[in-house]
Amino acid sequence: MASKTPIVVVKDVCKTFKIPGRPPIHALRNVTNHVNKGEVLVVIGPSGSGKSTFLRALNGLEPVDSGSITIDDVELTAPKTDLNKLRQGVGMVFQHFNLFEHKTALENITMPQMVVLKRSKDEADEIGNKLLDRVGIGDRGDNYPSELSGGQQQRVAIARSLAMTPKVMLFDEATSALDPETVGGVLDLMKELAADGTTMVVVTHEMGFAREAGDRVTFMDEGEIVEDGTPNAVFDNPQHERTKLFLSQII
Amino acid sequence: MDWIVEVYNYRVVAQFIPEFTRGIAATIWISLLSLIMALIIGTFVAIMRLSANPVLWRIAAGYVQAIRSTPLLIQIYVIYFSIPALPLLDRRLDELEGGIIALGLNAGAYMSEIIRAGIESVSRGQVEGAQSVGMTYMQRMRYVVLPQAFANVVPPLLGQTSVLIKDSSLVSFIGVFELFGAGLVVLSDRLMPNEAFMTVAFCYLVIYWVMLMFSNFAQRRLGGARR
Asked: Computed from CA positions of residues A47, A48, A50, A52, in that sequence, does the dihedral angle turn out positive or negative?
């Protein structure tokens, strides 16, 4: 269960996308949030609500205009912070997997360990094989991403992140690009990770997952956090009109 | 079979086997060294060209423009005759060095444009995947972007390499002995242009064919099982 130690602290973060010739898009407006150690925060909201931008800001893939983001006492938004070093401790799983196409499944997991963490090949292989078993595709280590199904690729991507022993795992619509029959398996794996006490921030459209695995649900719309609370509170007793509208459309 | 000897007297060619062998070896050696130089230059220039730093990308763009807009033969002459005049070298550049440097600089410019296209063909997601595990810029380039970039542009790189091999014949103009030079020997000794240059052409064909086999192997190694 989640402790009370915050590991991700987001304060007053703003982000505007400026496209020449068009009005600027306010992707994040004064977003303040936090994630405690072992907590599973699920971020929901309509498309364009800023939830993916919020998630990508958490490992610096999306630089923010103002405000501060702190990961495990390191301030990501400080100009001197070594983002590459910080990202070692923040795993990220993408909608389109972003596996290294020129590496096998096992190499996808071992290469970052050897390159970034300077682990030996033997050690990395051992961890890699263990993690492939853990995510349920221990027999596909020698396959290239193009030879795997979407669900299998996403499992490899999760294993790749886990190999870096991250302090927090970010999931950016991890099941949105999957075939319907493989979604359940990946969600089950994410639930297992949650049950193991992994700190997770999950952007998803899977309300079943949010209700079942989430410790807390944040609803975002137009770059703002509209509502935040336990899954039961947000889903069964939403306080804001926008939340009610969104939930009525999606469920 | 007499008519063949009329057009192409292979017995004469056989007498010049030592010259042709030395010529082939020199051509391969010159091409190989300038290819390595061109790939290194091409990679760095491509990365510079894609840099956000205006000084870096302007230098890279200027270099490519300068090479493209002047004939290779002039470049060979300029490198061979001008570099020794620079104060940073206290000795004369020999013909072979001058020729290899000129060929490498020339092919490097063309290769940089191909490699740049290769780097741009690697999707943003690949870079983000590498960023998400904490790789530095250099690590991302070395382990994720460049291997895929090269695998994607092996065919055009191959084409440019064949141009390089053929262009290497131009270094004979500054007195380097290579395959074309072997043909010139036959021509001047026996006044037999067919025997001289048909043999030379055939040898270039063989060199190209061997290179093709190497590159197929390289593409499979770099690209994974995608193809």
From this structure: positive
